[in-house]
Write a structure and sequence with these properties.
47% of the residues are buried. With 301 residues, the chain is α/β, with parallel strands linked by helices. The protein folds into two domains: 177 residues, Rossmann fold, CATH 3.40.50.150; 106 residues, DNA polymerase, domain 1. It has a seven-stranded mixed β-sheet, sandwiched between helices. Helix content is 43%, strand content 15%. The structure holds S-adenosylmethionine (SAM).
Length: 301
């Protein structure tokens, strides 16, 4: 059953509509379909000779997008597959080259609110965090089985959390009496380690933000998948085709920036965005998720 609220405001939508407007016969690949927010914008320009390919690992997103994208003049192909396998998948579907390959990384607002996903530190949920339920390891598996040093290193590396050792110690301490099965218990354990009250928020950033980010990255193997995706793009783009990626934290953005620079040095890309494009103050106010969004665009030469 799809209990996920089908809600998501696409970030940088206006700008993307203007900067990445495809020709009517273009092949557009949206590697992170979500609720088809950006795909719907691209689809407005695609005619009967155009193709829109959407990837997502979450079947609920694909189901919702299938309805949103019905009745379009262009051909629509929605694929449940990890974008790290984009090259194989496009080939298997008879698509040789694309004019635009786009990704809006991370998770949708609807996924954060989905009680089955276990991604939110603001609601009580079973600790899971898999975007793709075919994956075997959940966040609860990591939290309850990894040793203290492994946990501390993971929280530091993927969450950039300076208090990672204290948090890991607190997790291992709690585990001596009970398993950590829910997001609320994990938030309490983190707050205990940091000496803060989960309900008394002093800073804009919730104390569990970095640990939750680290776990989500680890569960979904996000950085390895992004690297594979970025490496595949140049071989899939036509000449003058564009690669556009929106990232939401510095670990992702660094991978995108370095990949684009390497391809520029190799004479494969021109970089359109010397500095990443960020949201306007108004958009940041209207859609808090846009505050950390960074869009980088490269063109194949
Ligand atoms: C931020 S949302 C995209 C929202 C979309 N741009 C929109 O406007 O509706 C990111 C989506 O990418 C999916 N996703 C994340 N990592 C993925 C991966 N490695 N392969 C395929 N889909 C992925 C998530 O399940 C999620 O639906």
């Amino acid at each position: 059953m799809n209990n996920m609220p089908a809600e998501h405001k696409p970030v940088l939508a206006e700008l993307i509509g203007a900067e990445l407007k495809p020709k009517s016969d273009a092949v557009v690949v949206d590697a992170t379909l979500g609720f088809a927010g950006h795909s719907s914008i691209f689809a407005q320009s695609l005619g009967p000779d155009g193709v829109l390919v959407g990837f997502d690992v979450d079947p609920k997103c694909l189901e919702a997008s299938r309805q949103i994208l019905s009745n379009l003049p262009c051909k629509v192909l929605l694929i449940r597959r990890n974008f790290s396998e984009i090259a194989d998948s496009l080939r298997e579907n008879g698509i040789e080259a694309a004019d635009l390959i786009f990704a809006d990384l991370g998770v949708c607002s609807g996924q954060l609110a989905d009680t089955e996903r276990g991604l939110s530190f603001q609601q009580d949920m079973k600790l899971d965090m898999r975007l793709d339920d075919r994956l075997e390891m959940t966040a609860a598996d990591i939290i309850n089985n990894m040793d203290e040093k492994g946990l501390a290193d993971l929280i530091f590396k993927f969450g950039q959390e300076r208090a990672s050792r204290r948090i890991a110690r607190s997790i291992v301490q709690y585990r001596k009496s009970a398993r950590i099965k829910t997001t609320t218990v994990l938030v309490d354990v983190i707050c205990r380690a940091l000496g803060c009250n989960p309900n008394a928020r002093r800073s804009r950033i919730h104390p569990a933000t970095k640990t939750f980010q680290a776990l989500r990255i680890a569960v979904n193997n996000e950085l390895d998948n992004l690297e594979k995706f970025l490496e595949a793009i140049p071989l899939l783009l036509r000449k003058d085709g564009r690669a556009a990626v929106i990232s939401f934290h510095s670990l992702e953005d660094r991978l995108v920036k370095n990949n684009f620079r390497l391809n520029k040095t190799a004479g494969v890309y021109d970089i359109i965005t010397k500095k990443p494009i960020i949201a306007s103050r108004q958009e940041m106010f209207d859609n808090p998720r846009s505050r950390s969004a960074k869009l980088r665009i490269a063109v194949k030469i």
